[in-house]
Amino acid sequence: MKMIKKLSALFVLMFAFVALVGCAPKDPAEAKAKLEEAGYTVLVDGTALPAALRVFKVDGADTVVTATKTVEDVTDSVFAVYFTSKDLAKAAVEGVQKYAENKGEKTDVKQSGQWVYYGTAQGVKDFE
Question: Could you tell me if residue 60 is left (phi over 0), alpha (psi between -120 and 50 degrees) or otherwise beta?
Fold first, then answer.
């Protein structure tokens, strides 16, 4: 019986680890392919938008992926910033939140690995 409890505990820990690691794409190319496969129009920018984010104290932005999809008058979107490191991404969440608010977006910004992203519920789900 003790062995079953130990194995169950190990299984729960492994499941929790997988859930915490997240499922965000590993890089901008993978994000673009994943979103295009889901029917989104995708723009990948490695110059202008990362530079614009510096105004909001967001440093280390490498690439910005913007994607939109409209189906039956419902538009889903996601705005994702890929950072040069996980630490820079973590430090940039507040700045990206200010950037979103400045654009009139009322959304929660999420961070997963080197990504910081926000969007509609479906857009974020498709990104993850």
Answer: left
CA distances from 92 to 53, 106, 118 (A): 10, 17, 13
Q: How far apart are the first and last CA of the chain?
A: 38
Q: Kind of pairing, strands 74-83 and 110-112?
A: unpaired
SS (H, E, C) 4-23: HHHHHHHHHHHHHHHHHHCC
The shares of helix, strand and coil residues in the chain, as percent rounded to the nearest 5, are 50, 25, 25
Inter-CA distances, 82 with 9, 39, 70, 72, 88, Å: 35, 21, 24, 30, 10
Q: How far apart are CA 66 and CA 105, in angstroms?
A: 14
Tens digit of each residue's pLDDT (9 = 90 or more) over 25-83: 889 999 999 999 999 999 999 988 888 888 888 889 999 999 999 999 999 999 999 99
Rounded alpha-carbon distances, angstroms, from residue 80 to 10, 11, 100, 118? 34, 32, 11, 7
10 Å Cβ neighbour count for 121? 9
